[in-house]
Amino acid sequence: MSVLRGVLGGLSAVIGFVLVMPLLALALPFWIVAWFTRVLATWREPRHTSWRELLTFDAAIGWKPRPHLNTHHIVTTQDGIFHTITDEEGWPGPRRLEDHDVVVFGDSFAFGYGVDSHRAFFAQARELRIKAIGAPGYNMTQEVLLMRQLAPRLSGKVVVWFIFIGNDLDENLNPYTFDYWRMPFVRETAPGVWEIVTDHISPERLPYTLDGYRDKYRWVRVHTDLHSDSFLSRRAYPACAYLIEQGRNICAAAGARLVILTIPDRFVLRQSGIEDMRSRCADLASFDPDLPDKKIRAACRALGVPFVAGKQSLRLGDYKELDPHWNEQGHRRVAELIEEIYVDAALDVAHAGVGGPLSP
Hints:
Layout: H1 2-44, E1 48-50, E2 55-58, E3 62-65, E4 70-74, E5 81-85, E6 102-106, H2 108-111, H3 121-124, E7 130-134, H4 140-150, E8 158-164, H5 168-171, E9 185-190, E10 193-197, H6 218-226, H7 231-254, E11 257-263, H8 271-280, H9 291-303, E12 307-309, H10 328-347, H11 349-352
Parallel strand pairs: 1-4, 6-7, 6-8, 8-11, 11-12
Antiparallel strand pairs: 2-3, 4-5, 9-10
Helix pairs in contact: 4-7, 6-8, 7-9
């Protein structure tokens, strides 16, 4: 009986194989085409590096982009590979700072992270020459130090300072951030008295990992605290105002015109993001979806610095789907916004209180 079962089993297997052969024969060409497509795509794909390899240690500010880059880097495997060009100092674009009308300071948004350099906002302006000074991971403290370094070269220029609401405000207070070197920060030495701290900067990586930075809910908690009365917001906004004051003084002494442009996180452009923050807020009575812009606008008004809320111009469709940065449409929109800012700054419209996007 067992022999008979074995024979029948073998016969069934042969019959099954014979029946499935036509299906395999039909599927084989498609499988071959798919395999060759993957191989060809990999072969044609430019040599690339990780975005962390675009950066090098800098003793003054923690890190900066490598000079003379002309390379491709990968953001995420789903998002693709992008071409990056830097000048002899490591800043985005091939031309030197002196050849531009506008200088933009900021973090990865200023760097043009996530799109090819020739499609970033600084290459999109029609009649305006824009130079970006920034790198992934920068906070406002690093950008103030860069303004100090470059002050002699800012004379006669409009300086647009990107403040990314997503992480700049809290990271101004932190001496470290994950996957980077130590970074400058500000601390309060007495009530209302702030200073920039840099003596901890070194090429040594942290001896431990900051796992909290990898917690996807951390950013929601930070956003919630920044949109309400909290321990963080009571420190973050005075620190931000102090840094804006430093930037104003540097630009004024250099003969440059400073304008603040806040960059919203795409998270707060979704109603679901607002509701998520609201549900986590410890002081719901103080929760305000526009609080960061209101606080920074008030600081700018007190300091006489023109202010532009990017939230009024940017839309969710201006951001990438798999990465928190702008897509090409977003970069075009920001280029147009900077052109408007430049015209208003050149005409001193903000101080006259006439039209334009600037708000004193």
